[in-house]
Design a protein that fits this description.
By secondary structure, the protein is mostly helical. It contains 4 helices and no strands.
Length: about 55
């Protein structure tokens, strides 16, 4: 399941965060980071997915 979330994150970073934590603060932070640049949003999304997986 985490692999699927990471694939979604590569395409659209907030989507992977949404599937991991829902509409929480991490989702909104990821939207802001993605608007500032794709790479910060991607790094944050993968970090959130890895943090929540275990």
């Amino acid at each position: 399941m985490n692999l699927l979330r990471i694939i979604f994150s590569v395409i659209i970073p907030p989507l992977g965060v949404f599937f991991t934590v829902g509409l929480g603060w991490a989702f909104w932070l990821n939207i802001i980071l993605t608007l500032l640049g794709y790479i910060p949003g991607l790094i944050h999304a993968i970090w959130i997915i890895a943090k929540r997986s275990g």
